[in-house]
Amino acid sequence: MAFPGFRREADISILKIVVLAAVGMIVLTVATFAFLVWSTWKIDTVSVARQSELARHVISRFRHQIAHDQESATVWDDAVTNVRAYASPESMDWINANLGEWMHTYFGHDAAYVITAEGKPVYVFSDGMRQGAGAYNSIAATAAPMLGELRAALIRGDPIAPDEGISSPGVSDFRLLNGRPAVVSLKPIISDSGEIEQVAGEEFIHIAVRYLDGTFLRELETKYDFGAMHFSRTDEERAQKASLPLTTTGGDVIGYLVWEPYRPGLAFLQSITPALVAILLCLVGAVGVFIGMLYRRAMANREQEARIRYLASHDSLTGLLNRASFETRLDAALSSAAGTPQQIAVLYLDLDRFKPINDTLGHPVGDTVIREVAERICRLAPEGAPVCRVGGDEFNVLVPYAQVEEIEVLCRAIVRSICQPIDIHGQNVFVGISIGVALSPVHGTERTELTRKADVALYSAKASGRGCYSIFGPHMDALVRERAEIERDLRDALSDYSQFEVLYQPKYFAATGAIGSVEALVRWHHPTRGLISPAYFIPIAEEAGLIRELGRFVLKEACRAAAAWPIANVAVNISAVQLRDEGFAMEVMAVLAATGLAPQKLEIEVTETAWMDSFDSCVANIRALRAAGICIALDDFGTGFSTFGRLHETEVDHIKIDKMFVEGLGKNRGDEAIIQAIVELARAKGLKTTAEGVETEEQNAFLTQIGCDELQGFLFAKPMRRADVADLLSKTGWKRKAFVGGLGRSADDGKKEIGG
């Protein structure tokens, strides 16, 4: 029961408090505004200083990068041979393709010159095409002292700092060319093998030029958010804008890079000033509108109650229904449909490849992905269809339908939509989605039964390769039970390892035909099911958390066996799950110590797809293993989504060419070109190559001819037991034969392997 007199007295007291509070808030607001003005000035000062330091670092790194770019072609026997024969049309074409056009198209260099020991230009590339020797005159005066400095360094034999990441001496500096700022970099054209005799100081010199205006500045604006960046010969704009002097190694300033600095403090102050003014005005008029305040307070209470009710039934991140509300809606829909022709589909959706996004990019990015996925699902779902976020990266959708085809069309549309890139702050993020579907009344009329069967169908979609949908079928229950049995049997088998056997498939040096190394391959001899394919039980081991134990067993067996063999190394396949384990590198070193195998005799193989998906989370282990002398190999090379483009970022020593390319030799000229490109790319990066799946002499001949280092396949040897390997190695010569008997099949038959 309410008491009006008491309520009025309370309102008067509140009014007094409001008046005093309003006066105090006015004073506080003025003081706060003054403090904010001072704070924004300090923040902007620090921000401009940081931007200048960033610009200085970027320009310095860019200058050194040009020299590194040059060495992709200047440290090369072919380059030395062709520049010496520059008078030959064929050699000049080679020079144009590799020292001019390649540098322009791949690295963005604006001009390139090749200079003889006498200072004569024999090749000029500028304005996107080859030019006459006379075009060199425009930079000759600038290049002359730099040429002298480089040749003097070559004659002296100046050492190269080991931490600079370069292979040859060089000279680079900022210069003003025809009124344009530029980086001018000089590199000698030298032999990479050391087999070509060259007189110090008489080498041909490659000059690269990259202008620091135009497209270069636009790239800096885009990548680092510098505003309206341009070049100025003077520093007249320094008072209003930020600037960076371009200083030569001699201390001369050739000009300034000037840009509109980002001032976060000022931007923040400008954004909140209207709010501060509004607050002040509201406080001044608060007394006069006290009745309105009481009314708004009542309304606010109502809104808060409504929001509480909303939050109790919706997911806070996406605004979708939560699990409890969805179950209520599903129960109501099933009850309404009972005894009628109405049909209902329950969709269970789960994102693919979402965990690596959280692990590598962070949970805020993961939350953004979840919100975008929720929006895409809602756009495609029929109007009024309840959409629910079950939790994590899982969703439910309730869809009335007349024909099953309607559900199939919807599922395909959702899969296509989710596979499209998600733009987060200019970075494309990719996920996929798998969908399980249960239909009512076909698959049941109870909520728990329908959601269970939709979950089983989702499991089937995941097992089918992800990025697809599955509608529940009776056989799926059997598959789930079978997989559970395999997991249970696998767990039991790991109690004593007696059901597992490690086989070894030799790899042969292509040049000599001798055995160079072996690859360890695990086999599971199930007591009732017989030999189970690694492609089947390895994913189960990974999902069940058993892969570490299985991998540890195989690693120990392989190292113990290889310690007694006169081979270069033993290769052991490793799961990405193991590599993500923080203690994996220490575990490997412990196994090596226990078995007596030298680190240099162990090679760790990781599939390319797993590498690309998990590199950021396992890079510490990779670096620790390589630092210990262990070789890292990239298996199934060429099948990943970004192999060629990201090879320069990849910390590996060895790549294995996937068998699908080898199978196409003699049938598909494209495969021949791909393999040759892989071998040449690996050679340029200093990586060893192995071709797997070699089964014919024609494949053998082609791979040997193009310079593949190692060959592996049924043409030479099948996987064999430890004793058979020892017997093979004891034979004189260890030369390869057309066929060496063994047991089982290897990675050459397309089955997934694990060696640790």
TrEMBL record:
Keywords: Membrane, Transmembrane, Transmembrane helix. SUPFAM superfamilies: EAL domain-like (SSF141868), Nucleotide cyclase (SSF55073). Residues 342-474 form the GGDEF domain. The chain crosses the membrane at residues 12-38, 275-295. Residues 483-733 form the EAL domain. InterPro entries: Biofilm_reg_signaling, CHASE4, EAL_dom, EAL_sf, GGDEF_dom, Nucleotide_cyclase, Rev_trsase/Diguanyl_cyclase. This is Bifunctional diguanylate cyclase/phosphodiesterase. It comes from Ciceribacter naphthalenivorans. The lineage of its organism: Bacteria, Pseudomonadati, Pseudomonadota, Alphaproteobacteria, Hyphomicrobiales.
